[in-house]
């Protein structure tokens, strides 16, 4: 049985979906599987494959992918690859065609985004009919997938994402942590309240800013500092018009001296060490990778009570607030900002939850089990 898989991600963007294949490749290798990659030439995805130690097969454009089917089939034969795994619904056209032309291939698909409309027309029945297993990254998305996709329930499986908790474990000494807080503009003794993620509509930065304004009015003597972590340009994955609107609103509320923009940072695990509270006010997260990253860092997290985030957080590990309710966010911030012991207890419980339920090793083990079981079923 071949223990080789081709991950297909023909995207020119860069977000959690695009990062997934390169994140999983080293763990797959540790569990005995050799990964291959198919990406667009010159894309950040192709670069990430190389950074993970895999030289990808590349295509000039997504629009010409179907014309390259012969080349891809030849690559699969030459490398004895029997498993293909797609990560964008648009890539299923190629994946399903490959599985049609070579029926021994096993096709997997991960729905990273959460489907928003039914996909039961003839094309989707054909394409998804070639999928051996569809992975939903949360129970919230699985329920939508069951209703939207033309697949029997037993072929749709919830498979939570995972991370390696080790890089998120605190490692800065007091002096280094204090220096990092100063770099972020956090005054000594202030509660650092962070919001990491792409600065785009839907991620909840607006309600967070309004909540901080309410917090300032409710608790005028409380020292706090807001930290917005994320790229500021299109090239860094953000919406520049949205960034400009956020800056205007911060100025209107008189909070310019109390909220800092960090820009794109590669040191998120260390930035978590500089924060006291992490906020994830996204309106409809399909999973919430940032939530479990902050939890792994032992941080107290406030998340939206919508999408998949309530599957990750509960009253023992953090707090939830309605994504459009600035007053609820302000109340949660006030509770946590004023209680160091509570933040510590919640943070410790959150880290234990990640170690128990959301590790990359456990995720990859489940993935490998699916790859191997379905290969075995095909060969039986």
TrEMBL record:
High-level lineage: Bacteria, Pseudomonadati, Pseudomonadota, Gammaproteobacteria, Oceanospirillales
The family line of this record is: Belongs to the glycosyltransferase group 1 family. Glycosyltransferase 4 subfamily.
UniProt source species: Halomonas mongoliensis
Q: What class of enzyme is it?
A: transferase
Q: InterPro entries from the xrefs?
A: Glyco_trans_1, Glyco_trans_4-like_N
* Tagged with keyword Transferase: yes
- Offer one Pfam family short name for this entry: Glycos_transf_1
Domain annotation Glycosyltransferase subfamily 4-like N-terminal: ranges? 14-165
Protein's name in the database: Glycosyltransferase family 4 protein
**A Gene Ontology molecular-function term?**
glycosyltransferase activity
Q: Which residue intervals define the domain Glycosyl transferase family in the entry?
A: 179-353
| SUPFAM superfamilies referenced in this protein's UniProt entry, alphabetically | UDP-Glycosyltransferase/glycogen phosphorylase
- Its Enzyme Commission number(s) read 2.4.-.-
Work out whether the entry's keyword set contains Glycosyltransferase.
yes
Ordered alphabetically, the record's keywords are: Glycosyltransferase, Transferase
